[in-house]
């Protein structure tokens, strides 16, 4: 009976918590973030980040609802905004907090981090994230080929690592031969 009571209390507690705390919090977070997403689509990046006085920005959503799915997406948007504003350290900070089951969103976040590291003159980190981005969502051939090609170019020109560059150029040529980067690889391999 004690075990049954404990199981019922734990199950009931979990049900009550998820239905009366988590779900309303998720709904509220998504509701307050809609205007920031609209500002992001309009390229009003400062308003998207900080709000406009009437509506919240992504930073406030992260602060108030950081543990929710909407708070997680706000991290992605904040990182993307800072990347566009060329505030690369802040972009990396927020993008590292982002995680998703979506391969395409993860690939996009990796690409943004790679670009930010490249702008910060940290080529090794940029190279690693270009490779991650290129391998994260290979269904998008143009995106993956572009990321891997950038990684190869970075390895060749900045890191002076011809072996890594050759491997990536060959990978692009083999996996994505019909992309522009797949065609260009022959020139770089030569």
Summarize it:
The protein has helices at 2-41, 45-50, 58-65, 69-84, 88-97, 103-119, 123-136, 141-157, 162-175, 180-189. It is built from ten helices and no strands.
Shape: globular
Distance between the termini: 76 Å
Largest sheet composition: none
User: What is the strand content?
Assistant: under 5%
Which secondary-structure class do the elements indicate? mainly alpha
Q: How many separate helices? A: 10
Mean pLDDT over the residues: 91
Q: Which ranges are low-confidence, i.e. pLDDT below 50, for 5 or more consecutive residues?
A: none
What does it look like?
- With 190 residues, the chain is mostly helical.
- The chain contains ten helices and no strands.
- The protein has helices spanning 2-41, 45-50, 58-65, 69-84, 88-97, 103-119, 123-136, 141-157, 162-175, 180-189.
- Helix 4 (69-84) runs antiparallel to helix 5 (88-97) and helix 6 (103-119) packs antiparallel against helix 7.
- The radius of gyration is 21 Å and the shape is globular.
- The chain starts with a helix and ends with a helix.
Structural descriptors:
single chain; 190 residues; mainly alpha
Break the fold down into its secondary structure elements and pairings:
Blueprint: H1 2-41, H2 45-50, H3 58-65, H4 69-84, H5 88-97, H6 103-119, H7 123-136, H8 141-157, H9 162-175, H10 180-189
Helix pairs in contact: 1-3, 1-4, 3-4, 4-5, 4-6, 5-6, 6-7, 7-8, 8-9, 8-10, 9-10
């Amino acid at each position: 009976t004690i075990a049954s009571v404990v199981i019922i209390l734990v199950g009931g507690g979990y049900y009550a918590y998820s239905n009366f705390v988590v779900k309303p919090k998720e709904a509220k977070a998504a509701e307050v973030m809609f205007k920031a997403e609209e500002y992001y689509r309009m390229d009003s990046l400062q308003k998207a980040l900080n709000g406009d006085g009437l509506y919240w920005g992504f930073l406030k959503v992260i602060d108030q609802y950081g543990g929710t799915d909407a708070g997680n997406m706000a991290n992605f948007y904040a990182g993307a905004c800072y990347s566009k504003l060329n505030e690369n350290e802040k972009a990396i900070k927020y993008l590292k907090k982002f995680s998703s089951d979506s391969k395409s969103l993860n690939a996009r976040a990796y690409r943004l981090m790679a670009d930010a590291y490249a702008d910060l003159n940290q080529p090794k980190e940029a190279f690693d994230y270009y490779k991650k981005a290129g391998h994260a969502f290979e269904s998008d051939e143009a995106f993956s080929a572009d990321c891997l090609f950038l990684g190869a170019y970075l390895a060749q020109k900045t890191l002076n690592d011809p072996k890594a560059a050759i491997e990536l150029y060959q990978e692009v040529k083999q996996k994505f031969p019909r992309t522009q980067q797949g065609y260009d690889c022959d020139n770089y391999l030569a």
